[in-house]
Amino acid sequence: MPRKRTAIVQSSYIPWKGYFDLIRSVDAFILLDDVQFTRRDWRSRNRIKTRHGLAWLSIPVHTRGLYTQLIQDTITSDPDWGRRHWQTIRTNYAKAPYFEPYADRLAALYEHPSTRLSEINHAFITAICDMLGITTPITWSSDYETRDRPSHRLIDLCRAVGGTEYLSGPSASNYLDVAAFEAAGIAVQFADYSGYPAYSQPHGPFEHAVSVLDLLFCTGPRSLEFMKKL
User: Fold this and answer.
1) The pLDDT of residue 1
2) For residue 67, what is the DSSP state?
3) 39 within 8 A of 59, measured Cβ to Cβ
């Protein structure tokens, strides 16, 4: 049987470059959005560099009384957030070497965004994949029938797309039931995000843990040279 690597991750807002390396390192990528939304997390926010230091861009969403809502059910609470985010991005990256080649397409995403957080994240993730030349198929976890227990759900998702290997983020090594995967005939690997090369970056000391937009604006068509296969 040919090897087929799969990654399954919650959607994030304009994620960092490691998220896209995870996508480009697998044959099937599944957005795990039928799980609980976590507040003050990467689902609805990310960081960029500014002349005043690192700054959060956070999508405002309805959370009051919705403590168990799923990511796919989370709705934005302010229709003007996209305009504000794009204005902040433009203010701090307009002079970056490759801002203009990507500006129109990104501005369009911010102009009339969906009210659903999952759809917003999906739109940005797929557009950025296209900008980076990443062609991995992306589907939703809700497209498949799964069991409820976390590791069993991931195993079922891997099986649904014919996965023989599961590539996980490194933090999951603390709780993932690797034995259950092995019993199901699925090998588990953990991504290594160390050793990323630096590139010329505005606004002070170099920072890896920012949105991938920083990489695009600063390195343009050379972006993959500053990423890594996992």
Assistant:
1) 60
2) T
3) no
